[in-house]
Design a protein that fits this description.
The mean pLDDT is 92. The protein is an alpha/beta fold. The chain has a six-stranded mixed sheet, with helices on one face. The chain is 30% helix and 30% strand. It is built from four helices and eleven strands.
């Protein structure tokens, strides 16, 4: 099977022995956890950008452990970015971690540029459930007539889970899923472990 081309609806057009297959791709994550991960990733990226403009600093990689269970509001974002910049700059220059509401620990190492990484710490890995899978399939099922119109009747769905953050899911090997769908085949890719399951 080869990818013939990228498309919009569905995402890919595959070719197998001169047969065309539409493949729709869906990433499934826990939205609440993903929003939290995205918030912290964004403020650390903004802080990194500011630190890169400071010519007084050497190159370094700073791994920052974020304090457990902290939550902030969007309106606090700029203050948090300024705090991160101040805390990291002070640590790079003095090797002292000043009191702050976000960073618990910093480790610095030599690097080719100025980079910072926010680490949210450990989390419980969540198993994917029947309800989550059915919801994901149904969301794409509503568009299947458009997919068929664009590239023919044979349609597959690829659901991707299993990233490295709290928002990711892993496969529950005991899951019993009775899938009723117009998709000819439905696959689930557990990305981090590189496991592919055929659900239908």
């Amino acid at each position: 099977i080869t990818i013939d081309r990228f498309s919009e609806k569905p995402d890919f057009i595959l070719e197998k022995d001169s047969e065309i297959i539409g493949l729709e791709h869906q990433i499934v994550v826990d939205r609440k956890s993903k929003e939290r991960e995205g918030f912290f990733e964004n403020i650390f990226n903004l802080a990194e950008h500011k630190l890169k403009t400071d010519n007084s600093l050497p190159n370094f990689l700073a791994n920052c452990n974020i304090k457990p269970y902290v939550n902030f509001r969007i309106k606090e974002k700029q203050d948090l970015v300024s705090t991160i910049v101040t805390v990291i700059k002070t640590y790079v220059i003095t090797n002292k971690l000043i009191e702050n509401p976000i960073i618990e620990r910093i480790s610095i190492m030599p690097h080719s540029g100025i980079n910072i990484s926010g680490n949210l710490g450990a989390w419980w890995q969540k198993n994917i459930t029947n309800d989550i899978l059915i919801t994901a399939i149904n969301k794409k099922e509503r568009l299947i007539s458009e997919y068929k119109k664009n590239c023919g009747n044979k349609q597959w769905l690829l659901i991707v889970i299993g990233g490295t953050g709290e928002s990711s899911y892993v496969m529950d090997k005991n899951i019993k899923l009775d899938v009723k769908s117009e998709f000819d085949r439905i696959f689930l890719l557990e990305d981090f472990y590189n496991n592919l399951y055929e659900l239908k």
